[in-house]
Amino acid sequence: MELTTKRLKIRPFKQADINDLFEIYSNEETCQYLLHEPWTDNNKNNEFQKISEYKLTTETAISLAYELDNKVVGDISIWYTGMKETVEVGFAFNSNFAGKGYATEALRGVIEYLFAVEKVHRIQANLDCRNNPSSHLCARVGMRQEAHFIKDFWNKGEWTDSYVYGMLKSDFNN
């Protein structure tokens, strides 16, 4: 799976991306609402190996790098949920490149691909309610907030609220 948008190349990760990805996932603010702790020099190789799939299937997730001028500035992961033709997306981006529309452009490109090529019926995102940048990103690409669950998820030693965002192909205006 490789895509090109106006400014970005979106593709599976390769070993040479490890340091760019480390720059994203070693950031405590970036990881505060994710399921894992920030990467360290001691665990970055093991963590990086977890995203080595190159094809999205109903059994395997895929993590895609989005690259600007040969630098990986974000990660979009996609996996099937178990519901027919439904995928979930997760994302993280380099905070040094925030506010320039790269995450929006990348996610729009991936959404367009998922509806047109993979023929998915539904795309959803589940996120911590406190994660305002991700919530705003979902809204910018046309996803609607469908649920707000109260203290439904135990993560990093606390109960957290969750939002579920979703969209159908008919919701997507590219």
Description:
With 174 residues, the protein is of the alpha+beta class. It is 24% helix and 35% strand. Strands 1-2-3-4-5-6-8-7 form an eight-stranded mixed sheet, with helices on both faces. A hairpin with a 4-residue loop joins strand 1 and strand 2 (9-12). The radius of gyration is 15 Å and the shape is globular. The model has no long low-confidence stretch (mean pLDDT 93).
Radius of gyration using CA atoms only: 15 Å
The major pleated sheet works out as: 8 strands, mixed
Helix content: 10-25%
How far is it from the N-terminal to the C-terminal residue, by CA? 19 Å
Structural class: alpha+beta
Mean pLDDT figure: 93
Order of helices and strands: EEHHHEEEHEHEE
Shape: globular
The overall strand count is: 8
Q: Tell me the strand order in the biggest sheet.
A: 1-2-3-4-5-6-8-7
* Poorly predicted residue ranges: none
Question: How many alpha or pi helices?
Answer: 5
The share of residues in extended strands comes to 35-45%
What is the element layout, followed by pairings?
Blueprint: E1 3-4, E2 9-12, H1 18-25, H2 28-31, H3 44-49, E3 62-68, E4 71-80, E5 86-93, H4 102-116, E6 122-128, H5 132-140, E7 144-155, E8 158-168
Parallel strand pairs: 5-6
Antiparallel strand pairs: 1-2, 2-3, 3-4, 4-5, 6-8, 7-8
